[in-house]
Amino acid sequence: MELRISPLTRIISLSGFLASGFLFVILSCALYHNYYPLFGTLIFLLAPIPNSLFGRKGYDTSDFMSDTTNNARDFGHFLTSMMVTSGIVLPFVFYHCQLIGSVSCIMSMVGGLIIYLSIIIFSWFFSTSWDSEDDNLFG
């Protein structure tokens, strides 16, 4: 027996998850009167954009070693991974330059990762939900 979760439950739980990420980032800024950690949040919010812009072609195992690979999709993955890595490292750079404290660094990094993961999970949950007829919001 398969467990079916309604889309409304998914949206509500993901919004709570996203709100906890923003809570961590805002607390890392407000508790220590320093708003540099918001730059990391901006990077995490922009990170999924290259993957969504450069296509949604499915991975095929027969396509792995072919000469006709999709370079635009690979470039989108590269940009996304570069932005996620920058979002993780930016609080450490701010901490090293003594712009933020250690607790603010950790809270900003964890909050940014929660924000990015909630965006990824949202796109993963709803990538096929709108295609199937039995898994819609009203039925």
UniProtKB/TrEMBL annotation:
Signal peptide: none
Record carries keyword Lipid biosynthesis: no
Pfam families: Vps55
InterPro entries attached to this UniProt entry: Vps55/LEPROT
Membrane association type: Multi-pass membrane protein
Transmembrane portions of the chain: 12-31, 38-55, 75-94, 106-126
Keywords assigned: Membrane, Transmembrane, Transmembrane helix
Keyword check for Transmembrane helix: yes
Coiled coil start-end: none
Subcellular location: Membrane
GO biological process: late endosome to vacuole transport via multivesicular body sorting pathway
Main location: membrane
Family affiliation: Belongs to the OB-RGRP/VPS55 family.
Protein's recorded name: Vacuolar protein sorting-associated protein 55
Naturally occurring in which organism (per UniProt): Candida glabrata (strain ATCC 2001 / BCRC 20586 / JCM 3761 / NBRC 0622 / NRRL Y-65 / CBS 138) (Yeast)
